[in-house]
Amino acid sequence: MEIGIDSFIATGAYNGRLSSEENMTAMEALLSKIAFADQAGLHVFGLGEHHRKEFLDESPAVILAAAAARTQHIRLTSAVTVLSAADPVRVFQEYATLDIISKGRAEIVAGRGSFIDAFPLFGFNTQDYDALFEEKVKLLLEIRDHETVTWKGKFRAELIQQAIYPRPVQDQLPVWIGVGGTPQSFIRAGKLGLPLMVAVIGGETHRFRPLIDLYYEAGEKAGHPREKLKVGLHSLGFVADTTSKAKNLYFPGYQEMMGKIGKERGWSTPTREMFEAQAEPAGAYVIGNPEEVAEKILRHSEALGGISRFTFQMDNPGLSKDDIFRAIELIGTKVIPLVNQS
Questions:
Q1: Residue 145: which domain range?
Q2: How does pLDDT run across 295-309, given as a tens digit for each residue?
Q3: Torsion of CA 76, 80, 86, 92, to 10 degrees
C-alpha cells in the first residue's frame, strides 16, 4: 500500500488576509515538508485546489514543480484538480510538464470540487456542475491517450486534428477520479476504468463499501480488468508518539478550521466529543500513535474491500513545524513498515 499526505496549504487566515511575507513563509514550510516526506520514505504527496484566502493552493501544478526540484522519489499529485472549472488541455500540459520536471512522478486526481469558489471565478455555472466534469474528464483522457485530438463538446471550442504538447515521461499519465459520496461519481469512475480516490471526512468509513462495490461493478461491466480498478482513501489524520498527544495537538486547530468551514455550510461547531467519536476505531479520522494508526488504516482497507493508497489530510493551523515533521517521521519509520508487513 502507498501511504502519503495531502495538503491544502492551510494558512490560518480565517479572520484576515496574510501578508506577502507570511505567504512566503507558508509556502517555504510546505516545500520543506514535501522534501522531508520524500526523505522519510512516504510514497505520495498531493496538493488540493481552492480559491479562497484560507488556502495557498490555487496553482498546485506550479507548487508541485517547485517540489519536484527538491525531491527524488515521492510521487506528486493534485488532490484534487477542479476539472469542471478548468481547461483540460491546460491541465494536461501543466501535469505533463510536471512529469518531465519530476522525471516521471506526476499524477492527477480530477474531481468536481467540494467548494464552488472556482465556478464564478472562471465563469462557469454551478447548474452545469456535473455536465462540465463529465465532458472535461473525457477530453482529458482523450488528450492523455492521443497526441493528436479531434474533439467537439458543449463547453469548449472544438479541436480539429490538434497536436497537444508536451507529452509526459510516463507512457500514460496517471489520472484518478476524486469522489465524495455521490453514487454516480463512483459509477462514472468505474465505467472509465480509472482509479478511485475516496475522501472520507466524517461518519463511519465502512458505509462507503456499497459505493465502492458500485465502482467495481460498473468497471467490470465496461470491460475493465479488476486489477486496473483500484481504490485510494483520503482521511483527516495525524500521528504522534502517543494517542493522547496526537489528539491534544490536533484538536484545537481542527476545531478552528472546521468551525470556519462549518459556519459557511450550516454545520454545527465541532466539539471535543464529536472529534473523539470520529477518532474511535469505526470513525473516519486516523489519529493516534503509530501502531493504532497502522491498525486503523488496515481496518479501513478491509472494510472497503482493499485499498492501494492512503493519504493523510493533516493541514491544521494549530500544529507546529516540529509536530508535523515528527508525524511525517513516524509515518515513514513506523506506520508504513507496520502496514506493509501486515
A1: 2-341
A2: 999 999 999 999 999
A3: 30
Can you tell me the distance from the alpha carbon of 195 to that of 189, in angstroms, rounded to the nearest whole number? 7
pTM for the structure as a whole: 0.95
Cα separation, 83 vs 110, whole angstroms: 6
| CB burial string 3-12: b at 16+ within 10 A, e below | bbbbbbbbbb
| pLDDT at residue 224 tops 60 | yes
Rounded-to-integer distance, Cα 331 and Cα 293, Å: 9
Planar angle of CA 248, 318, 30, nearest 5 degrees: 125
State the Cα–Cα distance between residues 250 and 244, nearest whole angstrom.
Answer: 10
Distances (CA, A) of 169 to 31, 57, 71, 103, 244: 23, 25, 17, 7, 45
Residue 22 confidence (pLDDT) above 90: no
Number of domains in the chain: 1
Q: Are 85 and 113 in contact (CB under 8 A)?
A: yes
Kindly give the pairing relationship between strand 148-151 and strand 196-200: unpaired
Distance in angstroms (rounded) separating the CA atoms of residues 100 and 119: 30
Q: What is residue 15's predicted lDDT score, i.e. its pLDDT?
A: 53
pLDDT in tens, 230-252: 999 999 999 999 999 999 999 99
Query: Span 200-227, mean pLDDT?
Result: 96
The enclosing domain of 287 has a CATH number of 3.20.20.30
Looking at per-residue confidence, does 130 or 43 come out higher? 43
Give the pairing type, strands 148-151 and 175-179: unpaired
Per-residue pLDDT tens digits for 50-66: 888 888 999 999 999 99
Before 62, cis peptide (omega within 30)?
Answer: no
Strand partners, 81: 110
